[in-house]
Amino acid sequence: MGSPVQTLIDNADYEPVPPAPVLSLMDRCDRCIQRAWVRVANKKGLPLQFCAHHARKFEASLIGFAQDTIDETDNGFSRDK
Ligand SMILES: [Zn+2]
Predict the structure, then answer these.
(1) Would the pTM of this model clear 0.85, i.e. be above it?
(2) In which domain, by residue range, is 38 found?
């Protein structure tokens, strides 16, 4: 059995708090001028940023490339019109 506090935490009925966005309006796609919603870093930590359109376009090649990925395309504001 865990401590009473741990039991309270385990049984808490709460909505998970989404993490604060990392990418801002100042972050731009490396392939166009649109706002970047995805940032990937390779093994050397070199970042690439993409808008939702280009993130989808290069998704297949990014899967093998990316060591660290920030994907904020699901926050509701990034859908291409
Ligand atoms: Zn783009």
Answers:
(1) no
(2) 21-81
Q: How far is the CA of 10 from the centre of ligand 1 (A)?
A: 42
Ligand 1 centre from 20 Cα, in Å?
Answer: 22
State the total domains in the chain.
1
Cα within 13 Å of Cα(13), Cβ side? 0
**How many angstroms does the Cα of residue 27 sit away from the middle of ligand 1?**
11
Residue 11 lies in a domain: no
Per-residue pLDDT of the chain (81 residues; tens, 9 = 90+): 567 888 877 877 777 777 778 899 999 999 999 999 999 988 887 889 999 999 999 988 887 777 788 999 876 554 444
Give domain status of residue 38, yes or no: yes
Query: 10 — phi, psi (to 5°)?
Result: -65, -35
Would you say residue 41 lies in a domain? Answer: yes
Dist. CA 34 → ligand 1 center (Å): 6
